[in-house]
Write a structure and sequence with these properties.
The complex is a heterodimer of chains A (about 190) and B (about 160). With about 190 residues, chain A is of the alpha/beta class. Chain A is about 30% helix and about 30% strand. The chains are: A alpha/beta (about 190), B alpha+beta (about 160).
C-alpha cells in the first residue's frame, strides 16, 4: 500500500526481501546500505539474534530522489528466513508494494527455495495480495560458490511468472542494485496505471 | 494490488497536526506521533528532532504487529493500548481508527493517567479526520488534486535510477 503524502510531497513504498534462511536477504540490505550516500539513507535496523540471524526484520529507508516534485522513498524490509518464524514473516508482508525473492543457488538449498516461494504465495494471499500480480523480482544469489545449480535449471524451478530474474553475489554487490531497481520500477509503473 | 493507496492531502494533514499539537500540550508530553500501521509516519508534534522518526515509525509498527499477532493467539481481537515504561521516558501506544498508531512519548512531568485520558479524547478527533480522509479516498481523484503519477513517463522513472 503506497503512502502518498501531498502535504510533505512524498511517496512511500514498501519492498520486502523474502527467501529461505541464510540465502542473503540481510546481505543485500547491508550492501545497499554501505553503497548509498549518507543523505539518501536512514539508519539500518536489524532485529537479530545473538548469532546474527534475523529474528524479526531488517529495515532500511532509502530516498531515490524526486519524481514530479515528490520525494520517492522506499522502505526495504527483510523477513526472517527460518521456517519456524512464519508468524513474523506474515506480519512483515502487511502493506507490501513489491517483493524480491532471494534464492540460494546452492544445490542443497533448492528444496528450501521452493518451499519458501510457496510460503510467500500463501502469506501474500492472507493479506489479500496475489504473487501473480504484485511487483516482483527473483534473484539467484551466491553465484560465486562452487556447488551452484545452473541458471536455466533454477529459472525453470523457481521463476513464477516470467518475472525479471538476476544473478547475484550479494557479498560483493553483483546484481544487488539491479534487482532492487527492477522492483522499484515495477512499483512506480503500477502507480502510474492507477 | 488489493488494498487502496493511502493518500494524505494538505487539509487533513493540517487537521491531524493540529490534533496532535493539542494532545501534546494537554498531555504534557515530549512528542506525539501518528504512524500508519505499515510503519510510515503520518504526522507528528512536539520535540521530534531528537528522535530518529523513520526508525521509530517502523519499530512501532513492528511492535504493534507482533502484539496483534499475540492477541490473536490467545483469542483477543487486539490489544488496543501498549505501554513501555523507561527510567526517564515512557511510550504510550494506541490504535486509532483501526489503521493508525498514536505514539505519545512522555517523562515524569506527565503521568500515565493523564496521557491515557488525553489520548482517549484525541482519538475521537483523529477518528473524525480519518473518516473524512477515507471518504475522500472513496470518491477517488475527483475529491483531491489529480494524481501526479498518472503522467509520469518511463524517462522519469529511468532518471530516478540514473547513476
Amino acid at each position: 500500500m503506497t503512502f502518498i503524502n501531498y502535504a510533505s510531497k512524498e511517496i512511500n513504498c514498501k519492498i520486502v526481501y523474502y527467501g529461505p534462511g541464510l540465502c542473503g536477504k540481510t546481505t543485500n540490505l547491508q550492501y545497499i546500505y554501505n553503497k548509498t550516500a549518507p543523505e539518501s539513507k536512514g539508519k539500518m535496523i536489524s532485529l537479530a539474534t545473538e548469532a546474527d540471524r534475523t529474528l524479526f526484520f531488517d529495515f532500511l529507508p532509502l530516498d531515490l530522489g524526486s519524481i514530479r516534485g515528490f520525494t520517492t522513498r522506499f522502505h526495504l524490509y527483510t523477513v526472517p528466513g527460518q521456517v519456524f518464524y512464519d508468524a513474523s514473516r506474515k506480519l512483515i508482508l502487511k502493506g507490501v508494494d513489491g517483493v524480491i525473492f532471494v534464492a540460494d543457488s546452492q544445490e542443497e538449498r533448492m528444496e528450501a527455495n521452493i518451499e519458501s516461494i510457496r510460503n510467500l504465495e500463501a502469506n501474500l494471499k492472507e493479506h489479500g495480495f496475489d504473487l501473480s500480480t504484485i511487483p516482483y523480482a527473483l534473484q539467484f544469489n551466491k553465484r560465486d560458490l562452487g556447488n551452484v545449480v545452473p541458471v536455466e535449471e533454477m529459472y525453470r524451478m523457481l521463476n513464477y511468472k516470467r518475472e525479471p530474474t538476476f544473478e547475484a553475489v550479494a557479498t560483493t554487490g553483483v546484481g544487488v542494485f539491479d534487482t532492487l531497481k527492477s522492483v522499484a520500477k515495477q512499483i512506480l509503473i503500477e502507480l502510474k496505471k492507477r | 494490488m488489493s488494498s487502496a493507496d493511502f493518500v494524505l492531502y494538505e487539509e487533513e494533514f493540517k487537521h491531524l497536526e493540529e490534533a496532535l499539537r493539542r494532545l501534546r500540550q494537554e498531555a504534557n508530553a515530549k512528542a506525539v506521533f501518528l504512524i500508519d500501521k505499515n510503519g510510515q509516519q503520518i504526522a507528528s508534534a512536539g520535540d521530534v528532532e531528537q528522535f530518529d522518526t523513520t526508525s521509530l515509525a517502523s519499530l512501532t509498527a513492528g511492535n504493534v504487529a507482533a502484539t496483534d499477532g499475540l492477541a490473536k493467539l490467545i483469542g483477543e481481537r487486539e490489544f488496543s493500548v501498549l505501554f513501555h515504561e523507561g527510567q526517564q521516558d515512557h511510550i504510550h501506544i494506541s490504535i486509532v481508527a483501526k489503521r493508525a498508531i498514536l505514539v505519545v512519548i512522555f517523562d515524569d512531568r506527565s503521568s500515565l493517567g493523564l496521557v491515557r485520558l488525553r489520548v482517549k479524547r484525541a482519538s475521537v478527533d483523529l477518528e473524525k479526520i480519518f473518516d473524512t480522509m477515507l471518504q475522500k479516498g472513496e470518491k477517488g481523484s475527483g475529491a483531491g488534486p489529480a494524481s501526479p503519477f498518472s503522467e509520469i513517463t518511463d524517462d522519469d522513472i529511468d532518471a530516478l535510477f540514473g547513476e
